[in-house]
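## Example pair
The file below holds two records. Each record gives the amino-acid sequence first, followed by its C-alpha cell line.
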Amino acid sequence: MTTQQIDQERAGAFAGQMMQLLNHAFTAPLFSIGHQTGLFDTMATLPPSTSEAIARAAGLDERYVREWLGAMVTSRVVEYDPAAGTYRLPPEHAAFLTRAAGPDNMAFFTQYIALVGEIEQKVTDCFRNGGGVPYSAYPGFQRLQAEESARVFDAALIQVILPLVDGLVERLEQGIDALDIGCGQGHATNLMARAFPQSRFAAYDISEEGIAAGREEARQWGLRNARFEVKDVATLNEPGRYGLITAFDTVHDQAQPRKVLRNVFEALRPGGVFLMGDIAASSRLEENLDHPLGPFLYAVSVLHCMTVSLAAGGEGLGTAWGEQRARELLAEAGFTRVEVKQIEGDIFNNYYVARK
C-alpha cells in the first residue's frame, strides 16, 4: 500500500478556498434578505448612519439589522466607522445591489439559494435513484424567473435585443404574426405587443399560473393583439404560421428540445426568424474553466435545469449545453443559416438568430 505525497502548500490553499466558500455560502442568504427587505435600497440613499437610523429608515427591527450589518461589514460590502458607529454602502457596491441597478442587481439572484435548498434532498435522491425533480416542486420559482427576466426585458428587449435581427423591427412595425414559446408570465410578449400594435402576438407555456399572469397584464395594458395559451410546445403543430418565434432562456429546460426546435422550424413561414436567447457558454467543459459564472451554471443545472428535464423523461441538456450543441440542434431542426450575437456587458446570454 502506497501513500500519496501531499503538497502542503496546495492543501493549505484549498483549505482557504473552502473557508471562503463557507463565508460566501452563509452570507448569500443575507444578501437575499437585504434585497427582499429593501435594506440595500435604503442604505444607498443614506449618508453614513447608525444601525438605529438604518433600521428606522427601512422600517425594520434594529437588532436584526445590526447583526446583518456585521455580516456585510466583515464581507467587505458595507463600510464601518467604529469611532462614529456608522455604516455606509459605497455607491460602487450599490450599483450591483439595488433595484435601481436594474439588470445589474446581483443581490436579486441570491433569492434562488433558499429555493433550491428546499429541494436539495430530492436532488440527492436522484443521484442515487436517477430520474429528476419536477418543475412543480419549486415553490415560487416562476415568480422569481418573471422578476428576473422583466428587468432585462424592460431595459433591453425593444431597444437592444430585437434590433439584433436585421430588419425585424421594421417588419414588426408593419405587422407580422409572432409567437413566444416558454413565455413564463408573458411580460416579453406584452412588451412587444404594446410596442408593435400592427403585429399579432401569441404566447405559450405549460404553466397555468404564468399564462394567467400574462393575460392579466395584457388586460391591464388594454392590449388586443396578444393571446396566451397553456400549451406544451413539444406538441406545437402550426406549420407556416409565424414570421417570428422567440424563446428566451427556455430551450435548454425542455424535455424534448429537438422536437421543440423542429416544431419551431415548421411553424415559421419561409423567410421567418427564430430568435433564441440562451446561456452563453461552451459545450466543452474545458472551455468553461475561465467562465466567470462557470460553477454557477453547472450548479444551477444540477439543482434545476437538468433535473426538471429529466423528471419529464427528457434529454436533460443542462444549463451549460453551450453554443456548439445549440448550433448542432438548430441544424438538426432544419436551420441552415444561424448567427450568434451578444450584447455588450451581458455575460449570461447568447442570442441565436436562425432564419428559415
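Second record, same layout:
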Amino acid sequence: MSGRIVVGVDGSDGARVALEWAVEEARLRGAGVAAVHTWQMPPLGTGAGPFDPPTTLDADLIERVEAGAKQLLERELEAVDTSGLDVEKLVEARNPADALLDA
C-alpha cells in the first residue's frame, strides 16, 4: 500500500461523490482511505446578564452528538464498496478544515 487518500464525510450529496472518488482513487493507487467526519457543539450563550455564569453542556447530550457523528460516518461508508481497502475512520470534535489538514 502506498499512502492514503483523505476525504471529508458530512452526509451531503457532494461528500458522497467525494467519498466514492476517494475509494476508487485508493484502489487505483493501492492506497488506504482516511474518512474524516467532525462535529461541533453550537456555541452557548450565557445567562441574561454579563455577570451570569455560562451555560454548561450536558454530558449525555455530548455523548449522543458524538454517537450520531459516528453513525453518520458508518452509514456513509456502508453506502460505498470499500472491500479490500484499509479504511481509517476519524470522528473528531473539532473544526473540519483542521481535521482534514491534520489527516
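Notes on the second record: The longest strand covers residues 32-38. Residues 7 and 19 are 6 Å apart (CA to CA).
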